[in-house]
Write a structure and sequence with these properties.
Blueprint: E1 5-8, H1 20-28, E2 31-34, H2 37-46, E3 53-55, H3 61-73, E4 78-81, H4 94-103, E5 108-110, H5 115-123, E6 130-135, H6 140-150, E7 156-161, H7 166-177, E8 181-186, E9 194-199, E10 212-216, H8 231-240, H9 245-256, H10 260-264
Parallel strand pairs: 1-4, 1-5, 2-3, 2-4, 6-7
Antiparallel strand pairs: 7-10, 8-9, 8-10
Helix pairs in contact: 3-4, 6-7, 8-9
Amino acid sequence: MEPNIYFVATPIGNLKDITLRALEALRGADVIFCEDTRHSLKLLSAYDIKKPLYSCHKFNEREAAEKIIANAKEGKRVAIISDAGMPVISDPGNTVCKSLKEAGVEYTVIAGANAALSALVLSAFPADKFTFIGFLPDKAGERKTILEKYKNLDTTLIFHVAPQDVDRHISSIYECFGERNACAVREISKLHEEAVHFKLSDGVQGEKRGEYVLIVEGARETENPLNNLSEQEHILHYMAGGMDKKDAVKQAAKDRGISKSEMYKFSLGL
């Protein structure tokens, strides 16, 4: 039996970017829970969908979850949407998901638009490995703590940034990561969509309007200075630090990206 609770992805810009299945779910819902009922009304009105609307935002999510569960147990079909894109992803909904799981109430997802993935494609940065970080904290100290956790990752990094935070958040990223290539993407799927490539040290020029997705290249692999030593000196370095020969060979081989057996021959006589 199909669940009667749907987390429905909505357009991130162009109202035409909604799936037939999403429209079917919204039209078939008895009630719709929205991040901002006024904002969602624009989408629903565009498709002539008239349903009872209830708010589900970060300040009332627990109470909303209880109402959603109560509606579902009454046999009503419930749709949950955020202002744009996929609910839960940098938007309200995660508390609802947890509450539904704890209550043993099943739900499903109606897939659709996602700003982070769309921006990644527009940036042309490596997409085989990426890390979604989302919004950074407002306080500089907390921002630095978060960024320190990611500065050595070799994956493409994805941030959501409000227009008023673009300059200072890029500055924080630059202070932590150093110079890197980046891309600021905005107005995805709209008339003035743009993907602006820049260096972190330069920042993004001009007036900041609309929500941004910031794509930053991952950390570049740095050469281990020990690799400049001879193989024997490399092994001796670790032995001088207290490692036995076997572990020293293993670590030196790892540093150089070669097999232990290949490295072992350089340890003979040490």
